[in-house]
Amino acid sequence: MVHFSSTILLAAAAASVHGLPLTKRIAQTISASTAKWEQACIAAGGAQQCNPVSVTAFSTLLAAAGPCEQQNSADAMVDLAKSLGNDAEMIRLAQIFAQQPRNTPTSLSVQYCQQAPKNAELNGLFQCQFAGANPTTFVGGVAVGQQGTIPLGLSAPLSPAGSCPANPNGPVPDGQQLADIVQSPGNVGSGNAGNNGANGGNGNASGNNGNGNNGANTGNGNDNGNNAAATSSAPPAATPTAAASTGGDFKLKNGQDAQAQNAQFAGLTANSPCQEGEQACIDGGFAQCVGGRFVIATCSAPTKCFSLPLVNKAGTSLACTTESDAAARISASGATGGVTGNGAADNNNSGNNNSGNNANSSSAGNNAATSTPAPSNGSGTASGDFKAQNGRDAQALNAQFASLTPSSSCQDGAQACVNGAFAQCVGGKFVLSPCAATLTCAALPLVNKPGTSITCTTQADADARIATALGA
């Protein structure tokens, strides 16, 4: 709703008399733009993860936001939907949000993002304009046809001006929410859904380079550290060196990389700056950056989140385990100095963020003793005998996990691997956090005491750890 004081109205009238362009502030109730998505997120089991993403997203509709911030938030909304079993309603509403008009204080059209989205579900989508916005001039006084005034992938201005795939017949009435007036996000992934005639088919050029490799995780998982360099809070990258790719030299390097990550993350807090999708261990819990802030999933007592070395290839992974188990795994790599490389305690953090490792996107599992279903401890308490039992327990857990689905019954707090993703029971329903590409969630045997842990790692690494425990 637009409000004018008498002074503003008189000024506008004077401007009209002198032939100057008439401008007004076009705004909206921004929180309404993500309200339906947040409700769908809560219904899907997102719990406390939903609101931070929602708030960050609707804030991007303010005039001060950059041209790609709205799309970035839509990507975060889709990311969370995918972690919750690819919830279709959340994805649909995220697609519509990506096309919601933005505020314009000068009644000029708002420039379009010129970067590809992370998720393919957003390919070819761009925001509508409000009906009161000037269709020929964009924010900054940029004339239509210049850079930023044509959606990415198109070659000519939109026709009709101000339209978008979800509302192809024209702009949106001032102040209204697209989610209230449309049900379909439009012809997703095909340019501008028929707008602009011959230009519509070009829209998909917008997205193919960005899909799946934007955020902090590119799916490289456990064998490179490209992503960590992109964020100020990242630890030293655990990129395998040339020597690490030959023989067994990578094992020591993996241990040292895990120590470096654990030391770096000891200084992080929930308020540390982060980039979307970035991961870390904070206050002993697994943390993922959602909407520009870390969301922390606590490990089950008495475990904490640690970065651990892989055993069969270059890289590291995250897991919730005991400090003594983390120290033993790092020591087995040949690295000395405890979990942080200086003999210090873990300081509750440790972590991954990625450093290329892996444990990405999900991960960090938790102690399998609290997951669903739990294995039998068997005879694992006698001196050394527990190692083989841990291996058998991990095998039993993995076999049982294979039969679980997102709709399997569970008790709150229970943890498991479901469809290759780390799963936690929230409100009687599993909430899934996918592992990065090439990785899968698996139960692994502890190495210095009875029990198991869950983490995202490669299948080969999981097999190698279990085989070592079994003495195979």
UniProtKB/TrEMBL annotation:
Coiled coil: none annotated. Residues 161-253, 335-388 are annotated as: Disordered. Keywords: Signal. Residues 188-213 have a biased composition (Gly residues). Residues 370-382 have a biased composition (Polar residues). Residues 1-19 form the signal peptide. It comes from the Eukaryota. Residues 214-248, 342-369 have a biased composition (Low complexity). This is Carbohydrate-binding module family 19 domain-containing protein. It comes from Pleurotus ostreatus.
